[in-house]
Amino acid sequence: MDKKTRDIFITSFLAILFGLICSGIMILFLGKNPISTFALLFSSMFRDGYTIGEIFVKATPLIFTSLAFAFTFKANLFNIGAQGQFYIGSLVAASISLLIPHAIAIPIAIIMAFILSGIWGGLIGFCKARFKANEFLISMMSTYVALNLMNYLLRTVLLESKGEYPQTDSLSKNTWLFKIVPHTRLHVGFILAIVVAILIWLLLYRTTLGFRIRAVGQNQEAARMSGVNPELIFVFAFFISGGLAGLAGVTEVNGVQHMLLQGFNPSIGSIGIGIAILANANPIGIIFASILFGALQVGGTIMGQISGVPSSIIDLMEGFVMVFVIISYFIRNKWEINREKKLLTEGVK
Amino acid sequence: MIVNLLSRAMMMSTPLLFGALSEVFAERTGVMVTAIEGIFLMGAWAGFTTAYISGSLSMGLLFAALAGLLVSILYAYLCVSLKQHQIVTGTAINILVAGLCSFLQRVVFGVPLSPLTVEPLQKIAIPLLSKIPVLGPIFFNQNILTYSVYLLVPLGFFILYKTSLGLIIRSTGENPEAVDVSGINVSKVRFVAVMFSGLMCGVAGAFYSIGYLGMFTTNIIGGRGWIAFAICFLGNWNPIGAFVGTIIFGLAEAFAILMQSSSSTFLPNELFIALPYILTIILTISRKSFNVPAKLGSAYVKEN
Amino acid sequence: MEKPFFELKDISKYFAKVIANKDVSFSVNRGEVLALLGENGAGKSTCMKILYGLYRADKGEIFKDGVPIIIKSPKDAMRYKVSMIQQHFSLVSAHTVTENIILGNVKGKINWEEESNRIQHLADKYGFSVDAKKKIKDLTVGEQQKVEILKALYLDANLLIMDEPTAVLTPQEIDNLMNFVKDYSKQGNAVIFITHKLKEVMSVANRIIVMRNGMVYGNVNKEDTDEIRLSKLMIENSIEELEKPKVDELKKEVCVSLKNICVKEDQEIPLLNNISFDIHKGEIFGVAGVSGNGQQELCMALCGAQKINSGSIYLNNKDISNLSIKDRIGLGMAYVPSDRHRYGLVMSMSLAENILLKTSYSKQWSKNGLIDKKKLKDTTNGILKDFRVKASGPFAIAKELSGGNQQKVIVGREVENCGDFIIFDQPTRGLDLGAINNVHSAILSEKEKGKAILLVSTELSEIFTLCDRVAVFYKGEIQGIYNTSDLNSEKIGLLMAGYKNEGESING
Fold first, then answer.
1. Domain end among C384, C410, C436
2. To the nearest whole number, what is the mean pLDDT of chain C?
3. Cβ contacts from B onto C, under 8 A
4. Chain C residues with CB inside 8 Å of B170's CB?
5. Has residue C214 got a pLDDT over 60?
6. Which of A87, B63, B268, C386 has its CA 20 to 30 A from that of A180?
7. Inter-chain touch B83–A327, beta carbons under 8 Å
8. Are C415 and C422 in contact (CB under 8 A)?
9. What is the span of the domain harbouring residue A83?
10. How many domains are there within chain A?
11. ipTM > 0.95 for the complex
12. Mean of the pLDDT values across residues C127-137?
């Protein structure tokens, strides 16, 4: 292992450790013992097969939303609107599954959710390309628009037949993503997520198209001078990004909820960004980071139920970890420079 | 009804102006305060909690400003001192603050049986002036924070364009190297600007909890910080532009509230709720000649 | 004996990848013009930035009048009346002259009228024709330099450090600058003049410090030396003279042809006005001029990055005026841009990826839809070998290479992809002599292969050594096209400054 890789492991480990320590200090304010709380957290995660399965269930949509952020990030674009694209994907998946209560709805839902939320995202890229608009702001705002669109549809055409709550009827069992492990909720969407992550990695690092996306991200002018049209890349990157976030909608609606609820999973987009930061936007790293965050959520939820520690401790923990991950970027860079400097001064003596 | 609408617009634009104006100052030094949403939220929570416990709204405002300052110091440390990516850092801090506020809310208040409320800031009618027809109720029957807006805009303009400090701020965002060469510490200028932004945005956040609603929920800000952030862009990094922008958004928000309460079935409520966000998108797209500070968003890295 | 005005003693400075300074010691006296001579990367700027407080030395001391002083920031340096003009001016281009000069030097409320009057007064006193109320972006480079000098005068500096001040000036502007430097030093002030140009050193300096690889290699009075001896001190290994291939009769075959090219932006003065010339196969066609007179736009128009408003461009008799950059690359047009960091390389990517950059659309790199890594690696290795690039291998990151080696990678890539026409825009700017030599021989070997070559350069010596014909650009127009042999530096200097001699030029 070279020194750079070693640094990545050491600093990432320390970032997570410090994140836990800070959250532990917060737990003290509740008058609880942080060590036993963490012990409870970890034992909750692995309580039984069901909870272990749940880790991967929770990780599945996170893989998609963090891939969504990472993909545009490679083109030096910021898609902060994965939450909204996720809602669009959910809407599409729910509508199609309600319209066609057969198994064939699943592939149609996957494709249509990808395309329509891809278009929703691609429009952001188009605004950037055509009007030089700030994609960060527009993607941010698009989430609120998508949320209100969803609320409107859930109140009107998609409203359940009882007409009581803003949610759809349950989907026909035919349209549920099938389970891959019995006695858990773990569904085939997880496999889909892994495959997509690997495909995204291949696209980015093994094809000339992916190379061009990264080139635009690293040096837009040089890419333009080499015949690449950065504007097309903007639209394409945002299309893919939106599509990826939309897939999270399919796996959540068809795989977990089996219906569409108003404002569900409200922080899946922002946590996705956090995971992408932790994984340095590497698609393979994202798989593991998502599983880690999935585990924290599972443990945290159970812990919130059986002890007095609220599950918001998980958000807190994730926030602290992210901040320390950012500090670790700085430290790694510092170490690298110091190593080179040392090498140099030793060479002089 | 129009008077009522405009009066409400003035009120709703107040926190946006606090946010946008302070963002103008920070961005003119080259730092986007992308933690603005989190700072708003922190201010809303700290303001409410302090006001609830102490029973004093002014204590609430003070602690909201301090809480905002603390978050901004963390942000400035990461982005200015450690020179990390501003958007990435802001996102991380916003997540952290969201978790922190809902956790602390639980720590302080447990699980309350009925919603906790405080009496929000009262309107203070200015004698004589408030009696002027139309203009009086719009401009001179507001709460103390809204009044301070009338001072802040000209003051902000004066500082930015007529003082040595303003020249330094404007130069830092355009060409930090020139500032460095002139013997001014670029990081210090940026750090202080972000801290100033933290103070102002903390107060802005508190406006929502104790200046208006009299209560706190974890989604109380709902993207208002981002709208203030957008207004700074749309107002061309200029205090006057920010003022115009906040009035437009204040109007949109007041209009949305009015339409919702009038329960018209002509257009869906959700459209009005989304109006400020849609407006931001439209304005961002149609805004042509941007006057972006040249080095906005990039850290000043000097080899050493 | 009188103590020196300023003295540096045993200054050492290490950067992450280079030793910038190693035990540098020298001094400057009142009334003296001291030249700091050395190649790019010799450490001249670094040790001056230490004296000016922009960098902190890892080791060493600074004395003023024999008393040790500590300079932690430019503020300290200003207190000791030291001023430094950076190579790339540090002016805020969106601000006015006045705003730039008083930045950080006034307190509280600013009375703009009063301040700009004071600065206008100062400018007039020194005979600098600069409008204090104009914005920097509306000034010429020469005027911008005057603003920098004014800033030093505004601060009453007694030691003025100038980093490569002549790089962007016309020969006539250089003369004016030299006169100012001489006058200023006669008033008891000191000037440190950083340069790599031997001629300037001999014309302006009283004493010369020669630096190489971060160390001082010579400290001589002007009277005791000459250009040849200085160049030997400055350069590690002497460089073999290039032999210019004999200028045969120009092949008659035209490769590239420009007809009445105009480029305008926003209805203002045209950036390029009515540009027409032909480049023949095997010809090196030079474009001379002070930078910023349309050369950049010309290159951009040729490679397809700049839309032309009227006129047409032909490559091998094919009208390519409306083709995209991608299509022009496909036709074999190669381009070595002047700003390699911005346009030429993706600094954070590997060398192999940078080789792929220009031809990423070409089918040759694809195998089953994925990048053929082996082929890419082999091609890269070949280029590294052919151009003697010093790098750890094809997967080294571009930014880890020195400027000269980066440029060799670009030249290697462009030569590899070149069909019939190659543009070299300032190909040797900022390179050391060894790398310059490499680039020049690459250009000549392309000429021998019969390619049409456009060489844009602000270095007149480069134009004279390499080009067959030269067009002089001034404000977006061609002042004239000449056989290089018919020109001398004085004549070309006048043309570059906008003086046109009717009837002397030959036809393009």
1. C410
2. 88
3. 79
4. 92, 95
5. yes
6. A87
7. no
8. yes
9. 74-267
10. 1
11. no
12. 90
